[in-house]
Amino acid sequence: MRLIDTPLPGLALLEPTVFHDERGSFCESYQQSTFDAVIGRTVTFVQDNQVSSVEGVLRGLHEQQAPHAQGKLVRAVQGEVFDVAVDLRESSPTFLQWAGVTLSAENRRQLWIPEGFAHGYLVLSAGAEVLYKTTDTWCPALERTIAWNDPRIGIRWPLAREPILSEKDRLALPFDPR
Length: 178
Prior knowledge:
The protein has 2 helices and 13 strands, in the order ββββαβββββββββα.
């Protein structure tokens, strides 16, 4: 597994080694000790989530706060998404900065989003299937939704038209540090 640096400390883009032959291909998408070595710490995942979306769906920006903050390991197993993480760690030198990467079934890349980041993605292909592991279970009382178009954050989404949003995402407010 190869680590590709991002501009935000702690945020990591991971690219697995893929083996090809006449039958097709094989890659190890997750192996605990390799992941921990690449990330530089031990991470325990407690839940896997799978989301199916059509083109133009934008999900996010979502964060779960302490004491049940979630780290996420995200990948697209079908289609293509523009995946975004926003640093919400107030003590970080990159506070409120964002990074976006393309995750696809073709590139097999995964994005490690540590605790303290908001997450969202936009579906670029006709449809996408996104899988992600989390370090804590969902806790609605600690979930925070931030407006996907918050001007203070300034994400440059590759939008062809207005995104398709859930009601929760449509009603989300700009970032408030609380």
